[in-house]
Amino acid sequence: MALAKEAYRELEEVVGKEYISDDPALLDCYRYPLSHTAIHIGPYYRVYTPRGAAVLLPGSAEEVQGIVKVCNKYKVKFKPSSTFWSAWGFPLEDDTIQLDMRRMDKILEIDDKNNYAVVEPHVIGATLQAEAMKVGLNTHIHGPGASCSCLASATALGGLGPDTLYMGHHNENLLGVEWVMPDGEILKIGSVGSGLGWFCCDGPGPSLKGLVRGMVGTNGAMGVFTKCAIKLYPWPGPATLPVEGKPPAYKAVLPDNLRAYTLGFPSWKAWADSCYMIFDSGIGYVAHRQFNMFGRDLKGAMVRILSDPTRTLSDIEELLKDPEVQKMTEDMKRDYQIVLAGMTPGDIEWQDKALDKILEETGGWKVKAMLEPDLFNWSLLYMIRLGHKNLNLVFGGGYDGCFGLGGTPDFGTSGEPARVEQVTAFKVEWEKKGNVVACGGDGMMGGIGGMGGGGHSLWENFTHFDPADKASTEGTFEFFNATAKYGAEKGLGPGMEKMNDYARWTDGYTTPKEIRDRILGSAAQPEAFRYQRKFKETFNPNDLGDGYYRTLDDPDE
Amino acid sequence: MALKDELAGIVGSECVSDDPEALDAYSKDLSFVKPVKPRLIIKPGSADEVQAIVRWANQTATPLVPVSSGPPRFRGDTVPSVPGAVIVDMSGMKKIMRIDRRNRVAMIEPGVTYTELQPELAKEGLRLTTPLLPRAGKSVVASLLEREPTLIPRQLWASLDPLRCNEIIWGDGNKLVTGDAGNWTSMEDAWERKQAPAGATGPGQADFYRFVSAAQGSMGIVTWASVKCEILPAPHKLFIVPARKPDDLFDFTYRLLKFRFADELLLINNSSLAYILGDGPGGIKALMKELPPWVVLVGIAGRSILPEERVAYQEKDIADIAGKSGLKLESAVPGARGDDVLKALLSTSREPYWKLGYKAGYQDILFITTLNRTPEYIKTVKSVAEASGYPTSDIGVYVQPLHQGANVHCEFILPFDRDDSKEATGMQQLLTKASEKLIEQGAFFSRPYGIWADMAYKRDAQTTTVLKKLKGIFDPNNVMNPGKLCF
Amino acid sequence: MALEDYKADMERCSQCSYCKWIPFDQVKSWRFAKGCPSIAYNNFLSYSARGRYAVALSLLNGQSTYSDRVVDIVYKCTTCGSCDVSDKICRYNLEPLEMIHELKFRLVEDGQVLPQHTALIEHLRKENNMMEKPAAGRGDWAEGLDIKRVPGESAEVLFHAGCRFSYDEELQETARTAVTILKNAGVDIGIMGENEPCCGGRAYDMGYKEEFTRLAENTIKAWTAAGVKTVVTPCADCYHAFNRLYPPLGAKFEILHTVQYYDRLIKEGKLKFSKTVPMRVTYHDPCHLGRRGEPYVPWEGKEKKIKNQIVIYEPKKPRYNGAWGVYDPPRDVLKSIPGIELVEMERIREYAWCCGAGGGTRETYPDFSNWTATERIEEAKATGAEAIVSACPWCEMNFKDAINTSGDKMKVFDVTNLVKQAI
Predict the structure, then answer these.
(1) Residues B126 and B74 in one domain
(2) Which CATH number does the domain housing residue B82 bear?
(3) CA nearest to B447, candidates B439, B456, B438, B460
(4) What CATH number is associated with residue B132?
(5) What's the first-to-final CA gap in chain A, in angstroms?
(6) Which member of B119, B434, C176, C259 lies 3.0 to 4.6 Å from C330 by CB, making a disulfide possible if both were Cys?
(7) Residues of the domain holding A550
(8) Alpha carbon of A210: minimum distance to chain B alpha carbons (Å)
(9) Rg (CA), chain A
């Protein structure tokens, strides 16, 4: 059923003719190819998310409210997205109204005393960071990188990133929210709700921030977040990043108080020990096992390619034969990247000494090749700006993480052999089938510190494939079925690969109820999803969101 | 069956009390909240018992008032708002369930006090950052759930830190475990897999534990919680940075917060510091005069890796930063030595509770704001106090940076003689007038106890509406401490 | 290549949004972070490289058909190539700019054209220029100049003025100056005058590939017949056409932009400055001289996969990622002029913001084109410069028009103008 003409007209009145369209080809730009992932389902070859009924570009919270009220009047589902990074920003049902938030892109305030910024949905990591740096501040940039919406990360999606150790999970950084609720009412959470500014997200009384999000957000299924305040962090560097070099191998020569290292370790036990020592010592500005996303066997060659503008992927095989690259790859086998940022000369000196002490105690090392000035400056810029994050798609165009080794550093690294080696061996066997990139089985990547101050290391095993290749896509899907089964049998916890199965199914539409209920009902605490159902019934009475909101619709008891 | 017998059937008769003296003690506290006598006091020993109590309360429409900390109590939150309530005294649930040094988390029941927890943590080389001199019987879980400020702002990534996972019995009788532990099917399996209850958020797409924070027991009852600990510091020094006006300390404090230097970091005036350090009313009075008008207390700690070196460079750098603001990092100032202050900060309060050492009663006014705005609030409280005839020199001020400096807890401590009805009436008027002015000025009463509830919720109608709906979900029969907040 | 040949690219594009911004490493502010004028102005996702991939795929798959909106989406692109540079930060196997051209070609083939373009192309066919002027007047700009006329006379270097410099009365003086400077510096230079052909580059960017090919083949034939070895042009569009689009058609000429020639002459001591030009200026990199001005590298090969699913090309394929465009010569020329203070805008070199004149947008979407130019002027103003200098007549005109509309005081120069002032 297409959108009623009357409804379209009313929506048009809200945003203006220029900012609404129902042209079929234009609507097809607002569909996500599920042969890709980065969405933690599938991949499903040549399946697309459903086509929306219309796309709107609201310019203010008032316009968003107007749209939501029209949607309530006509009982039409709506789905907002800011930077459209993955499938959860796209409808699960036909004829959904899509809100593209890109016109709401302002940084409304940066308070450089109390260290926060107030932003609209389409402010991205790169722009907020650039503005914050001008006043000696920085912002957490979450895993998908500098291209993504800061607000979406803080309110509606995940919120973890390589700098989480120092700059927190974005959940922790959220200091206030303006929320057009699914019923069209505007709720301002925390001090801003009382008209007192954006400095505190809790209160008065029980914190409604808990309704906005948990470990993850509501994926655009519970209204629209139109503004939020985000806590900022110190930036002890220049007001503008002094970038040099030719694309894509940009580098930044930064002052000596900013240092990027790749650390290598002789065993997984040593690797985990070092994580704990880093948490305990409080050193580190960015810490992440980042370059391993290219795979244990390929990362040395890839680092060489990415840092040299004359090279292409066609150089991989030649580089793999280079003894220096082989040495570097071996040195980086059990690794992670860390950036130290000293607020004073004394601070950087102590942090570096503390790091050396940690390496001494664990038998670890600073990977020598990564200390070459070009690579040092390249990786420093890479880790600070996180402006190359979509390199996870570099090989064939598709990737997804699998296996869930999230949790304490000990979790992934313990076992006999270490769990990370168990899953590596499992993946190596599947790589032999030819459908995913053969990278040595270990594409485990993730943060060293999945919350402010450390505590978690979050690992997913990157699997690369070609979404334009049927065999590769379908073979990857089979592989993910196998990893999910393996993870369940081995008690590894939920992997990324099936994270959104509860929401979207193989045809790109909402997962059938019985499957969804089975998935959510088998969670450790289905009760959480029963409460979420009550939240939905209470705050989204016309059910205008979608299945990304996890609700268990079985009887309470 | 009589009420007492019904409850005895859940917890055993020895854990149900209708002792008039005990009931009387729970009927009031040291605030101006109107006394209401409860019917019974029940002391559960397990989460299952708590769950059974809450289910029973739903069946019998009996109001429950959860209480975890020992007396004295000050803010009216544990005084029943309605007659016929049953006090659920959680102080008997005292297990320290687990201390995990490697992941620096401890799991504790709500009856565990700071006094009890710290020595056990110390055995493992850990400690828990505390509020400012909690009273000896203060429940750790209750303190954290009430979002009481703690002393080390650089460690506060999250606004509810160091509180992490919680087991909650909601007002509807359902149980939910929040945070990392909420994703586990069995604790034993989790330990086997070397997991730890370290992450606070979730499960699912809600942060359920936030709904029980600052809820004054109106949403549910927490039956265990995990807390993130710090490494037991050594060496640990405390420096004092004196100034004539609070504003003079702001650049320095902001710089430390931005750099995330220093450990304990708080601004305090002479009166507050005298209440902490002084001995008896006379000693306090004398100390007030001797102490500098304002100080920043700066703790510097070394932990695990190169601790001495850390303390040395921070001491030097912080002194430099102070120097740039025309300030000095002192080991001692007239009336106070850093070592003594540190000792006090690392302890629970001596008896009587430090805010009661000067006079037999006190009223505090506390809210959240930003550091740069605190002078205007100080001015307001002083001017209202002056107009009320309250001695302004007695006003204790405590400003605690929180959430790594994004905001501060601003607290005024106003000692008065409770037994002097004139003073008490004057204080009640002062409290009302000052609170009204402060809230108008921009003070955010994020934990709105007593009279602040109406003031705070009047300013934010939509939050009030949503909170009421939320309360309806978790406590549909309104059995959990009814009458508090906006409920 | 045909549009269908880019289907794998369309399916491999993952909607990362890099195409909308300048390379993130280079973002210096919120204000000047955008890279693609088309999405910046039009907002809907379809007006980005990703959107155009999706539109193309939708059309190829028969999920949608041509509509006014589709035509608008396809043509409202300046083909500036910003998306191409930013995409290639992370993607080594996508060619969004090539695909956008193929999409335009397809619409033209299918008759989905804009009337303004049709009129221009009709005129081009008849009169051999993009300025809607008679062919006969093409050489008028050089009237009175003592310059050799090719092919009647032979010269080592052919000066190709291009359509706009030939016909735009406001700019003709620049062409006269340029050729005179080169001649005075001892270059054996000639022009083709009224016989000079249109390079076809702008027709190519509008989607008229057939027309371009016809013009290119004619030009190559004419130059070959005249014994031309080296061509120098003051027009960035012409430079790009000759440098990048002609070689695949068999052209083997040395192609230089005037700024490159000036730079060479200055460094050889053959061009010297005697006057001071006290001015704070900023330099605008024309897309066709900068990121699209990389030299053509012959390649013939095919896609293959290694390590199961890594997409590479055999033999190794040249990677046009904007790194090797003409960026330093114009800057070096400006820096060598006494008194000139060169200040840089935030978006420069391979990630420069487009002037808004390309891809046929100036002719069809004047508001969009003007807005794009105004954005650049705003960026130039933010540097504190009193003048914006470029090396392309299309950029220059678009800036001048934008300034006339807004009433700004910013001056606009070609590098040649300042060189002349210093001699």
Answers:
(1) no
(2) 3.30.43.10
(3) B456
(4) 3.30.465.10
(5) 36
(6) C259
(7) 512-557
(8) 4
(9) 23
Which residues, 6 or more positions from B4, have their beta carbon under 8 angstroms from its beta carbon? Answer: B13, B16, B18, B40
Distance from CA of A463 to the nearest CA of B (A): 25
Distance from the Cα of A270 to chain B's closest Cα (Å) equals: 14
Res B221: pLDDT: 98
Question: 10 Å Cβ neighbour count for B389?
Answer: 10
- Per-residue pLDDT tens for C14-25? 889 999 999 999
Residue ranges of chain C whose pLDDT lies below 50 = none
Q: Are A294 and A313 in contact (CB under 8 A)?
A: no
For C244, other C-beta atoms within 10 Å of its C-beta total: 20
Is residue C312 helix, strand or coil? strand
Q: Are strands A20-21 and C230-233 parallel, antiparallel or unpaired?
A: unpaired
DSSP C359-387: TTHHHH-HHHHHHHHHHHHHHHHHTT-SE
Domain boundary among A69, A86, A102: A102
* Residue C84 Cα, gap to closest chain A Cα (Å): 11
Q: Is residue A310 part of a domain?
A: yes
pLDDT of A264 above 80: yes
Domain that residue B398 falls in: 359-450
Residue B463 falls within a domain, yes or no? no
The pLDDT of residue A493: 78
Contact C93 A84 (CB under 8 A): no
Q: Which two tokens stand for residue B263?
A: 């450990």
Residue B176 dihedral angles phi and psi, to the nearest 5°? -145, 135
- The reported pLDDT for the residue numbered A557 is 47
Domain boundary among A102, A129, A150: A102
- Asked if the Cβ–Cβ distance from C69 to A21 is below 8 Å, we say yes
* HSE toward the beta carbon, residue B125, CA cutoff 13 A: 11
Among residues B345, B370, B400, which one ends one of the domains? B345
State chain A's mean pLDDT as an integer.
96
8 Å CB contact of A194 and B196: no
Same domain, A394 and A300: yes
Which chain B residue lies closest to A185 (C-alpha atoms)?
B462
d(CA A401, CA A295): 12
C243: containing domain: 117-267
Query: How far apart are the C-alpha atoms of A371 and A412, rounded to whole Å?
Result: 28
CATH number at residue B340: 3.30.70.3450
Q: Please answer yes or no on whether C90 and A393 come within 8 Å at the CB atom.
A: yes
User: Could you tell me if B250 and B308 lie in one domain?
Assistant: yes
Q: Region A446-460: what's the mean pLDDT?
A: 91
Evaluate if residue B410 carries a pLDDT over 60: yes
Task: Tell me the per-residue pLDDT of B412-435, one tens digit each, with 9 for 90 and over.
Answer: 999 999 999 999 999 999 999 999
What CATH number is associated with residue C245?
A: 1.20.1050
Within 13 Å of residue B242, how many CA atoms lie on the same side as its CB?
16
Reduced to 3 states, what is the DSSP secondary structure of residue A138? strand
Considering the domain architecture, whether residues A347 and A489 belong to the same structural domain is answered as yes
Residue C371: other Cβ atoms inside 10 A = 16
Return the closest-CA partner of residue B210 out of A213, A520, A531.
Answer: A213
Contact call for residues A151 and A227 (beta carbons, < 8 A)? yes
Nearest Cα neighbor of B118 from B236, B126, B196, B133 is B126
Q: How many CB contacts within 8 angstroms connect chain A with chain B?
A: 320
Contacts A99 to C, Cβ<8 Å: none
Across the interface, do A247 and C63 touch by the CB < 8 Å criterion?
no
Quick check: C21 contacting A, CB < 8 Å? Answer: yes
How confident is the model over B36-88, as pLDDT tens digits?
Answer: 999 999 999 999 999 999 999 999 999 999 999 999 999 999 999 999 999 99
Q: Is residue A367 part of a domain?
A: yes
Amino acid at C346: E
Cα separation, B294 vs B274, whole angstroms:
11
- Per residue, the 3-state secondary structure of A163-196, as one string, reads CHHHHCCHHHHEEEEEEECCCCCEEEEHHHHHCC
Structure token pair of residue B42: 């029940």
